[in-house]
Amino acid sequence: MKQNKNIGLYIQLYSIHGLIRGYEPELGRDADTGGQIVYVLEKAKALTECPEVEKVELITRLINDKRVSEDYSVPNEKINEKFSIIRIKCGGRKYIRKELLWNHLEEFVDKSIKYIKSVGRLPDLVHSHYADAGFICTELSQFFGIPFIHTGHSLGISKKKKLIADGMSNEDIDKKYKINHRIEVEENIIHSANLIVTSTNQEIQKQYGDYENSAQSKFCVIPPGVNLARFYTYDKKISHDRKTAMLLQTITTKLLTFFIEIDKPLILSVCRPDKRKNIAGLITAYGEDKQLQEKANLAIFAGIRQDIQTMQDNEREVLTEILLLMDKYNLYGKMAIPKQHEIEHEVPELYRIAAEKGGVFVNAALTEPFGLTIIEAAGCGVPVVATDDGGPRDILKNCKNGILVDVSNPKNISKAITKIISNKNSWKKYSDSGIKNVRKYYTWNAHTNRYLSEVKRLMKDGVKNVDEFAPVGKKLFKAEKFIVTDIDNTLIGDDNSLEEFIGIVSDLKTNVGFAVATGRTIESAYKVLGENEIPYPDIIISSVGSEIYYNYKGKLIYSTGWHAHINHLWNRDKIKHLLSQFDFLQYQGEDTQRNFKVSYYTSDVPENLKKVNDILIKNKIKANVIFSHGQYLDILPYRASKGKAIRYLSYRWNIPYENILVAGDSGNDSEMLKGELLGVVVANYSDELENLKGQKRIYFAKREYAGGIIDGLNFYNFLKNTGAN
């Protein structure tokens, strides 16, 4: 699993939401499947053209839903020899909007770690796209100490401002879009990332400038490119194959369905049906200008739709408004709003058709972080009218291929369109400038050259702001076996055998990890380990398995993944209230209580334990009730226990059960001792474990305390072929 420094770069791109596949992306199908999808796909393909890049993986969500294509359920889609799309299951298999994914991202982190370890090689860098992927890559970077690059695509504060301006309340915004959590995550991403790639300077100043952590040194403007093999000029003489000829005929047929005079100049708009795209503003501009209607047709390709009534609120409202405005201004025969369009081939042809007819492309968005469609239009030679906001300012400054307008006033849009299509010399000037300058400023070759230059600088300088935890993350990446032991009456209790065990642990090589699983709180566990001069473990499972901490040289990192996993259906306050009626339970001191553990003193009376279980079941509370040492009763989430915590770590770090040795002495160790793990019961065990005798893979040691653990290591021949001394 060692990194080979002589081989090429291994780059992982993370883009979690939306529908991503390697061919014919369904752009415009919904709000989550837009320009970001094109960006990451084209970027990945362009990177594979670079000789210094060996492998590119685009990590996204696996979806198995009859409402969408089966393509999105393929775990590994190979695009070319260097590039694959890797799909990871997260939050079930149904296709859900991105705002509903937040609660499942820890699961994605766990499974990403498992996948990376299965590959056997750490990526040289991770690059996240949008805030959800940024959360994941923040965690991966901290775990493994690898460079972390982020591209936001859009930002929460900007969106929140716009929604407030539109009249939504803070409460409604947060309920629908989880916007406050998104902004909090974005702040952490900006703090954690080694480099933030933006498309424009305006994005840095006006959008990231609203955040507290927006240090200028972290940002680099690297505009995306346009695929000139697809978006070639309208006047390029090519011989159309049969498929392309049929495609052109299909597009013409679509337009003929709507237009009375098909040869007039074409005003074209291609975008998702989203309120921010201001499609209504464009239709209003056209509808209120009778002279413009005489001069040109209007075609709006607003995503893909089947039945508007079944679409999500935003899309349904926008499409309904489009049709109502079409009717209001009686634009039948002049305006086209096709239900379907094929992105891979139809969209480039639409730009070229607009150019051939002396038309214009319009981007009337109220806010536009970049404006990929503007450089696509430039590549094909069609002039543009674009919003005077964000990316279009930079693009038109470079490409000189159209007019910027304040789109909040529809008359500005119609005036600019008329100015271009009414003057052939101006039209030709804008068209030629776009064709020339898009090839100068906006190619994927230029993008990847600049990008890889920044990557090499990062790798040369080292990752300066990676968490100190990274070394233990790298150790866990290499770990093939683990020793896990309880503390009280297992690890400690006999000084001589403890000293012998410490000697063994001190000589463990990097492919064998050491962990403790204890009923003690993390503070108590850490203190007792120090008092007994026990080497601090790589992992501490504390509070009977309700908490997991990673440790590196005294720095403890709380496992938010485990937290998210066991939080499901947990209601601590209700449990405490229900159990307050039993006088045979004595609530333990607050120093022993935890967020995911309610602890009591009680006596060893089976009838009382049954009453506790019965009242929880009666009130539909799923919980794990653990009785140990004849006096301690702990109530945990149903997903939590020492055993479940160990199995979670086994899954996350891809360590087989048969490579994990566990040792314990009491009832709260019972679950971790059973099953496929290699169990060791020390000789001084309590009566609660007597029923484990004779069970598979449970060894009852002849020695007590730490001596029993050593006994178990020898019995299983556990350290053979590990490199341990």
Terminus-to-terminus distance: 21 Å
Strand content: 15-25%
Secondary-structure-based class equals alpha/beta
Low-confidence stretches: none
The 3D shape can be described as: elongated
- Main sheet specs: 8 strands, mixed
Strand order of the largest sheet: 3-4-2-1-5-6-7-8
**Can you give the helix content as a percent range?**
40-55%
Report Rg.
31 Å
Instruction: State the helix count.
Output: 26
Q: Mean of residue pLDDT?
A: 92
Number of strands: 26
Give your account of this protein's structure.
By secondary structure, the protein is an alpha/beta fold. The protein has an eight-stranded mixed beta sheet with strand order 3-4-2-1-5-6-7-8, with helices on both faces. Helix 3 (131-144) runs parallel beside helix 6 (179-192) and helix 9 (279-287) packs across helix 15 (410-421). The chain contains 26 helices and 26 strands. Helices cover 41% and strands 16% of the residues. The mean pLDDT is 92. Strand 22 and strand 23 form a beta hairpin. The protein is elongated and about 95 Å long.
